[in-house]
Amino acid sequence: LVPLLANLGDPDGAAEAVELGAEGVGLFRTEFLFLSNDEAPSVESQKKSYVDLLAAFPGKKVVVRVLDAGADKPLPFLTDEGEENPALGRRGIRALSFHEDILRDQLTALAQADAETDADLWVMAPMIATIDETEYFMNLATELGLKTTGVMVEVPSAALLADQILKVADFASIGTNDLVQYTMAADRLLGSVAHLQSPWHPAALRLIKAVADGGQVNDKPVGVCGEAAADPLLAVVLVGLGVTTLSMSPSALADVRAELLKHTLQDAQRIAQAALDTGNADGAKSAARAAA
Ligand code: PEP
Ligand code: MG
Hints:
CATH architecture: Alpha-Beta Barrel
Distance between the termini: 17 Å
Strand order of the largest sheet: 1-2-3-4-5-6-7-8
Number of helices: 14
CATH superfamily: Phosphoenolpyruvate-binding domains
Strand content: 5-15%
Largest sheet: 8 strands, parallel, barrel
Bound molecules: phosphoenolpyruvate, magnesium ion
Helix content: 40-55%
Mean pLDDT: 97
Structural class: alpha/beta
Shape: globular
CATH class: Alpha Beta
Low-confidence stretches: none
Number of domains: 1
């Protein structure tokens, strides 16, 4: 059975996530540390939050995402308010590499917190689109003392290059919220294009499969940490596509676990293939239901 992990937005939710059966953390969003501030928080204050988080998961995997500023998460001191299309602008790793001091401080705080705690800390970067960005992030994280470093796959280019990106990165985690937004060219916050935003769309499923295949050939783990992982039947499809961990809001863990327990891996692969062989999101969902 694939490990089920929790998505957390601050350390306060950690205890509840453990109670609800999280086997670790698959996505720790760090924006909360930055959103209420006019400037980046100090290494010392960040480290305190990371220690609080890591201390709740001794011996367990905890995947922390470095700051994802821009687009739906603007930050005055980091992002350019004049961009006409901020979702296609300097967000995520692009903003961080432009303000490398902020990235260095965050990675330093994470390495210090790691040294003081017993969790298995993994660190990943948001919005990776290229192999160059992957190498840049891996090199910096390694230089600053982090042991396991990976990328989020949220941009179609990264999914298409996953076999090469995963030669470099230790792991990948698919952010389906943004991956669907960029695959379908449909703003994730815009109701008028909501019909295009389904992670069931076979276009998204094919990209997810490309990432899982890239993980398999390189023997590297590939997780999903977007909302898609919280849909029980879609979780079965994701496992069938070759995804090795699922991370979701803790309240979804029990239902996803119950659904996964109903199927063997072979079943999941058959269900995933049925979904892949369709031409739209509704068709994929119906085909998966019929095959399950
Ligand atoms: C995603 O894009 O799927 C994701 C997990 O990141 P966020 O929702 O924070 O952009
Ligand atoms: Mg995202």
